[in-house]
Design goal:
Rossmann fold, six-stranded parallel beta sheet, Glycosyl transferase family 1 domain-containing protein, Glycosyltransferase_grp1
Length: 339
């Protein structure tokens, strides 16, 4: 099967770049794959290579917006016979209050029935409703995955060594959050968590996205440790931690199934999360995975985890979403689509 993957294959410092790289790696094991880097989409030689490749499947990874529909429609016409697939990783249809990109996408979404892809893969209820109303062919499919060989549980000795390496308190209960230091990520919750006795909050920011200094200063004032740079061995930050929290509520704050939650689970950390995006569709509360909906509930849930004898088995819950398994399911989906 010949597959053209469209995405951003640069430094994996953001979720959709990680997705593009892993989909390319895993699908290439059993298929012939042509990657097209979005920044190169306007170059003539890219289109010449694409036409020569003559794909069976064109899969646009980063998200379903009016721009991405235009691109895939042109590529479908240019390829003549290819089927087009699009991941709805992040709902792009919000007002201008969320930014220019979201506002323009929302205004232009009514063009989508004219340029829609053959199938849109959705991961949560909100985009499912939007695309169904736009008469699109949709399928619930988890496009988010995790490298279960990279993100693995650490022994107590390994935790101590890693805490020394990163300058993290050895004897404290470490609560981790990975993501942009921005108000819309609801990171203010981490101030409340940081006030718990013997708890150290560690935040790994994204240097590829906007950094809100006032929010960061407040977090640091309350004792949070912020690492706002690309960390090549991000798995070590998960490994040194005792718990992971995902406080985001705003639907534009993350992709619908956050990779950081899956990575924490693969490390077998207890996870406390809001009922964000598609998480509630694929996980239920058990084995150290907990949902919450308020600042104080985060504090209560962390206290509960520390004081209870709950056997944490979050790694077992996330194994079905390894990148190997995602690629197997994707390949079968492509075959079904072609036949």
């Amino acid at each position: 099967m010949k597959i053209c993957l469209i995405g951003d294959f640069s430094t994996p410092d953001e979720a959709r770049k990680v997705m593009a790289r892993y989909m390319l790696r895993e699908l290439s094991k059993t298929n012939e794959v042509l990657p097209i880097n979005i920044p190169d989409i306007y170059k003539i030689h890219v289109w010449e290579e694409f036409k020569s490749f003559s794909p069976d499947i064109i899969h646009y990874i980063p998200g379903a917006s009016t721009f991405s529909f235009v691109i895939t429609k042109i590529m479908k016409i240019y390829s003549k016979n290819a089927k087009t697939v699009m991941c709805s990783t992040l709902n792009a249809f919000h007002g201008f209050s969320h930014g220019f990109y979201y506002g323009v996408s929302s205004l232009s979404k009514y063009l989508i029935p004219l340029i829609k892809a053959d199938v849109i893969l959705v991961q949560s209820k909100q985009p499912e409703i939007i695309f169904r109303d736009l008469k699109c062919n949709i399928k619930f499919f988890v496009c988010s995955g995790v490298d279960t060989q990279k993100f693995t549980p650490a022994s107590e000795n390994e935790k101590k060594e890693l805490r020394e390496k990163y300058g993290v308190a050895r004897e404290k209960f470490i609560v981790l959050h990975v993501g942009s230091v921005r108000k819309w990520r609801n990171v203010g919750v981490l101030n409340e968590i940081s006030n718990i006795s013997d708890v150290q909050v560690v935040i790994v920011g994204r240097n590829s996205t906007k950094f809100e200094k006032d929010i960061a200063l407040e977090l640091e004032k309350n004792g949070c440790k912020i690492i706002n740079e690309y960390v090549p061995k991000i798995e070590e930050l998960y490994a040194l931690s005792d718990c992971y929290v995902f406080p985001t509520v705003d639907p534009t704050g993350s992709i619908d199934i956050p990779l950081s939650v899956l990575e924490a689970m693969s490390t077998n950390l207890p996870v406390i999360s809001t009922k964000f995006g598609g998480l509630e569709n694929i996980f239920e509360e058990k084995d150290g995975f907990l949902f919450t909906d308020s600042k104080m509930n985060f504090v209560e849930q962390i206290t509960k985890i520390r004081e209870s004898n709950t056997q944490v088995r979050t790694r077992d819950l996330v194994i079905p979403y390894s990148w190997e398994n995602i690629a197997i399911k994707l390949s079968q989906f492509y075959k079904d689509l072609l036949h």
